[in-house]
Amino acid sequence: MFRYVFSAFLVQFIFIMGITAYFFSSLFPKASIWEAIISSPFAFSQYTSELLLIFSLNFLLCGKHANKLRYVFSSHMLFIHLTQFFCIYYSFQLLTTEIFYHAPIANQMVNGFTLFSFVYVLFFYWGACYSLDLIIKKGQFTWRKKLWIVLPNLLVYPLIANGYAYLPWFREIRTNYHVLDQFPTPAFYQELRGVYADFKPAEKTIPLSVKEITTAEQYGIRIADQQYPLVKDYFYNSKLPFAEKRPVENSNIIVFFVESLSSRLTEPYGGAYPNLTPNMLDFAKISMTLKSYYNHAFPTVNGLRGQLCSVFPTFGNAYFRNMKVKYQNKIANNCLPKILNKEGYDSIYMSYAHPNETFFEAQMQEMGFTRSYFYRSFLEKFTFDTEPGHLPYGNSDKQMFAGVARFLKDRSSKKPFFLAVSTIETHPGMDVADPRYKYGDGRSKVLNTFHNFDHFFGKFLEEFKQSEYFANTLLVLTADHAHSSDVEYREVAGEDFPGDLFDPIVMMIYSPFHKLPNEYHAHSTSIDFAPSLLHLLKISNQRNHFLGVSFFGDRQKLKGSLGLIYGSKFLQINGEERKTFDLNLEHCASFRESSEHEECHSYRAIRASQDIIKNNQLWK
């Protein structure tokens, strides 16, 4: 009998080690095979615990009908494990709402590595099941004998789940990669519940205590007791900290929202890779480079809405569609394009994407752009190409920058314009369409895409400098959000990379109208984009719903700045100090009047502002 019990434990060991070691070596490619074998049960202790449960159930559920049940149950849990593993691999987050509606993420996850991983895990699983069936038949296991296997699993479970706490190296892994602290299956269903909650319009706004309102105001978030609680009468209250060369009124504005353009790799921000972004370095000589400037939202549509409308958006896809139905297409806002339209500007948006992806075109129109060009309509209007250069994602960076240059050449109207442009090729997981623009040996997709972007930005910059617009146009280079913390990015991001979705992003401003310093420390997040741009343009103060303030003086008078992603990932900036938290309403409700856990006060205020948006109380 001992021989069969030992064989069952051996099969279990091979099954669990085969899967967790594969996960570990994929996430930590620099680790040796022995490090992966020794470390994986501890680093992936929550996965190990659930795999022990799968094995125990496989062992207990035998018989004509039970066999079907165990295969269904175990396959279901393994599918969840694989889904969560891929999410961690590509973003170092567990399952998020972005995957459901963001096409580049879905396309990124469908590749040879994903297919191989499915085959690999299924091979181990079905091999373990077959071996287990043979052991049960030959050993003639009764229910009592089966407990000899199951009970040790239940005893080993708490030791494995907490074993890392007693081993410094394992504790360091779990401290740096806290996403591994969560059990994959409960987290999967919790996220599905969150998806439903985010897509469902709020019925009432979260009630806030005086303490929460006061704390939020220290970060610039003002929520008043009125029909439209976010409305205030000013964009900015400070004077610009630099002088004008000549009047800025009615100047043109071009803003490039570059996909995932975190600043840490780029040369103007001290990146460690020589000649990676030489054209950005050239641009830095004529522009102001903002430091300590973080994203406050994620992914792309949220990043754009958050910056253009100066709000903390909820997930903006199905939620946006549901709101349009509920409020009969009358979603009110006063975002940056609408404000500039009233000032006599022509507001235009250009994108690489298909107009129906994440309801992209409808959302840009709702924010106030009077004209928009997406995908093939952009190519037909501003290039000689007929097909997007980086299928299935969309137009290449080469096409986007060439198209903007063509737009400037062909423009005959003297009306000032606000042009916002989105690019795609620096998206996580992508590689360059043209191998000529890879960086160095071309092994890093991340470095390749940054170098490729910089090359075509440089081509545009050359033409821009030679055009009439160089003398009358503000040119802003920034990001839609920070780069996600996938494995490939972490390999090149440096040891100080925190491994979450908040990171300093590029913000560089060229102005022929101002005497700008070479560097400016914003200590801010992208929630301040719209009011700061209006401050720079000297647009007169007027009623608005912005939750951000100008980083040209107003932000520095406050306690700090905030960010929120997916309703739980919370960022708090206080000067040079940066903190992140995983928060939820239930946890923070108990600290409403407490002087402790200040992060909960401002977190609940942000969530209340999101309910205000869901209830269509943002603007009249």
Strand order of the largest sheet: 4-3-5-1-6-7-2-8
Instruction: Name the beta content range.
Output: 5-15%
Helix-residue proportion: 40-55%
- The number of helical segments is 23
Mean pLDDT: 86
Low-confidence stretches: none
Q: Total strand count, please?
A: 11
Could you explain how this protein is built, in words?
The protein is an alpha/beta fold and 620 residues long. The protein is 47% helix and 10% strand. The protein has 23 helices and 11 strands. It has helices spanning 2-27, 33-43, 45-60, 66-91, 98-101, 103-109, 112-139, 143-162, 168-176, 184-199, 210-217, 278-284, 300-309, 318-326, 336-342, 360-367, 375-382, 397-410, 445-466, 487-493, 529-537, 585-589, 598-614; strands at residues 252-258, 288-294, 346-351, 371-374, 417-422, 473-479, 507-510, 519-525, 561-565, 569-574, 577-582. The strands form 2 sheets. The chain has an 8-stranded mixed sheet, with helices on both faces. A 3-stranded antiparallel sheet has the order 9-10-11, covered by helices on one side. The chain starts with a helix and ends in a 6-residue tail after the last helix. The model has no long low-confidence stretch (mean pLDDT 86).
The gist of it:
With 620 residues, the protein is α/β, with parallel strands linked by helices.
Task: Summarize the helices and strands and which ones pair or pack.
Layout lengths: L1 H26 L5 H11 L1 H16 L5 H26 L6 H4 L1 H7 L2 H28 L3 H20 L5 H9 L7 H16 L10 H8 L34 E7 L19 H7 L3 E7 L5 H10 L8 H9 L9 H7 L3 E6 L8 H8 L3 E4 H8 L14 H14 L6 E6 L22 H22 L6 E7 L7 H7 L13 E4 L8 E7 L3 H9 L23 E5 L3 E6 L2 E6 L2 H5 L8 H17 L6
Parallel strand pairs: 1-5, 1-6, 2-8, 3-4, 3-5
Antiparallel strand pairs: 2-7, 6-7, 9-10, 10-11
